[in-house]
């Protein structure tokens, strides 16, 4: 990666890089409606995933099984959660802790482990912080995004009470838009040798974010 790309990524954590593009290109191919239909037909006659996978070039038996369990299986319940389902999850976690989601899913017909885990982590966990975001939290989110990129679960671990989903929403709905509307000249300082120096400290982030929020709200700045 050249120096120009490095600088762009430091200024904008979501800026595309060669590494990201290469990773995306190497990922599993998307599924077409025709493939989904074929998979549903094949599963009616066999659950031999290695054999079924041979009908889908470029996809492994694990990918085929995961796609069936998470997407194609007609028994998956995708609607709203009921009070009874929520109570089963709450009782399970009280007894077993937030783990063994596969075993929990067996008690909830039509639900898969991923759904159970996300329901607890994003909605039912009593430790979730649902209050308004503070300036300090925004600072941590901005700084961490610059350091590691959009790794929501890891960022959430640095923000007690915030879920990875709420962190992602905060960035995409508010902070990302504000940052993108600011020019590089306003959001970075320039050294005497004309190289761009990112603003990295929490104090600098705090002042910068306050200025940007005031501009968005058309509020006068305190001198």
Automatic annotation (TrEMBL):
PROSITE patterns: HTH_MYB, MYB_LIKE
Gene Ontology BP term (one): regulation of DNA-templated transcription
Region of interest (Disordered), ranges: 1-33
Myb-like domain residues: 23-72, 73-124, 125-175
Pfam families: Myb_DNA-bind_6, Myb_DNA-binding
Positions of transmembrane segments: none
Metal-binding as UniProt keyword: no
GO CC annotations on file: nucleus
Gene3D superfamilies listed in its UniProt record: Homeodomain-like
GO molecular function terms listed in the Swiss-Prot or TrEMBL record: DNA-binding transcription factor activity, RNA polymerase II-specific; RNA polymerase II cis-regulatory region sequence-specific DNA binding
PANTHER family: MYB PROTEIN (PTHR45614:SF25), MYB PROTEIN-RELATED (PTHR45614)
Protein known as: Myb-like DNA-binding domain containing protein
């Amino acid at each position: 990666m050249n120096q120009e790309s490095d600088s762009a990524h430091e200024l904008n954590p979501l800026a595309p890089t060669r590494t990201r593009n290469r990773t995306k290109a190497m990922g599993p191919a998307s599924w077409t409606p025709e493939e989904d239909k074929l998979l549903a037909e094949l599963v009616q006659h066999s659950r031999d995933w290695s054999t079924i996978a041979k009908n889908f070039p470029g996809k492994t038996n694990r990918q085929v099984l995961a796609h069936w369990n998470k997407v194609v299986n007609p028994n998956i319940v995708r609607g709203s959660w009921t009070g009874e389902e929520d109570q089963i999850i709450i009782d399970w976690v009280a007894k077993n802790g937030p783990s063994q989601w596969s075993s929990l899913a067996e008690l909830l017909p039509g639900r898969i482990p991923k759904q159970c885990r996300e329901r607890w982590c994003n909605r039912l966990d009593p430790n979730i912080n649902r209050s308004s975001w503070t300036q300090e939290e925004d600072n941590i989110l901005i700084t961490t995004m610059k350091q590691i990129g959009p790794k929501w679960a890891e960022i959430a671990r640095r923000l007690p009470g915030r879920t990875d989903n709420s962190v992602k929403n905060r960035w995409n709905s508010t902070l990302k838009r504000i940052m993108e509307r600011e020019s590089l000249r306003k959001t970075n300082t320039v050294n005497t040798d004309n190289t761009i120096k990112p603003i990295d400290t929490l104090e600098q982030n705090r002042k910068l974010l306050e200025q940007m929020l005031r501009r968005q709200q058309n509020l006068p700045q305190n001198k």
